[in-house]
């Protein structure tokens, strides 16, 4: 603590001293000239030469210049601390508007550092300064407007540094993390410092992390991010939620970067070196998760199962004296149709379980799509001996049921909602969220994209997905469409004729999806192309998007369910047709698969919770599979996901079958 106070005091003292000075040191970056530096600080070139006579020769990169500052100039320099400049030579017919789009900078920002442009037009051949916010080097991004003409910053290394006094027990990981740099950058700034010794002064970055604790302890350690690692993978590696990693490392808000030093829970594994710790428990869990279970061979508990189904029929709104009113309500009310279809699947599963020796006492209640009605149902009925509750369908009513039934520890299974729900110890979310689907596709791409020419096409609304994909696939090429249209010419330049091209399309814009798939379909005549997405949203299902194009591109996407095999499920279909005179839809099959899984789990263990302790693999039925994982704050979620692929005959197949 004493050393920490001394360092803080010295830092404050140096800040006070600087405020009394009229000068500032400037570290020369590659590509900078006396003219550009003078412009940046709003001073004359003569003022720089006055205090730096050697500057009249060639400026050396990393050399320091003394910059005279007036009060006005100091304010300007503070504003430009996080800005670097690109010298751009104006081409024929270029405009400020075009430059602002190419460099992603406001027109006023360009004028601010090129003041003659307030009153003059751009002149062909003149050099102007383009301000750019400093950021770490990432993947090459090809803007759809001018992929080949956009200049890149010549030097993206750390341009401004400060001194740091090494404290006892400090490590390179801790220091690098504190100043927002990588261990490699820290070592490059201090090439002569091999071993850290307390009291030695070293060079570091200026972006200081606002966190007083920088030393490792028994609870936390530091970890350097390796190539191809993802936030999802790290959360599993260290057995901590992604939200907790974000909380421990605020810098993750800008995305995960190779070389970033993270604060993570201490694995307390003395047999592994720092940075090489392997989460063996997670590996074992993942291996078991890939094992398919047949619970019908493990039945041992044949007590009658008490099953309650809560569904939003809302029958109170229907005229009960009129059969036609029921028919009209079913036709007009989608939620009612889904509820009835789902419940018919539930009843089929109960009959199937009965044939296996499992008897069930089934009750159903109408929640009327109302939280208060859910509360009334639970308060006015005895749920203490209920083995499981399936439903309600909607998020707010499901959370209300879980909250009320937590006192009895009765499992509540959310059957259809894909929204992230509040954590209750007894809440099971059986439908994977969009985030889980996305991460499943990330895993598939990471494992299978080796040797492929990967191209990411993402619009502005999918910037987060684009950033995550470039972290997983660091050699990928990126196209950022500026409009809801993408031509074949824009894509052709990044395609390979010798490698298989994997194109990942991230958008929900129908125009962009349609134009891109059409363009890829034409290009597929001369190139090997497969199409992927992390979210098959409604845009891909629109009539404007040609399914034949998707089939020829062998379209891959993550899915909660698969298309059932007519041959494998012939008996089920025939039984349903006999009872209801129609082919079962996805909600019928979902009701059947989910209910049969719950009943088999109850019959193969003491209760639902015990079944997850005994059996760690996944179960699979006609269209759905289930692998429940515990949430850090309570409850369970299903992370079993299919990666589906479409072939030229428009047949769906499972691409990630174990």
TrEMBL record:
Location of the LysM domain = 24-67, 86-130, 221-264
Q: Which SUPFAM superfamilies match?
A: LysM domain (SSF54106), Periplasmic binding protein-like I (SSF53822)
Q: Which InterPro entries match?
A: Leu-bd (IPR028081), LysM (IPR018392), LysM_dom_sf (IPR036779), Peripla_BP_I (IPR028082)
Q: Where is this region: Disordered?
A: 267-286
Signal peptide boundaries: 1-20
Q: Which family does it belong to?
A: Belongs to the leucine-binding protein family.
User: Under what name is this protein listed?
Assistant: Peptidoglycan-binding protein LysM
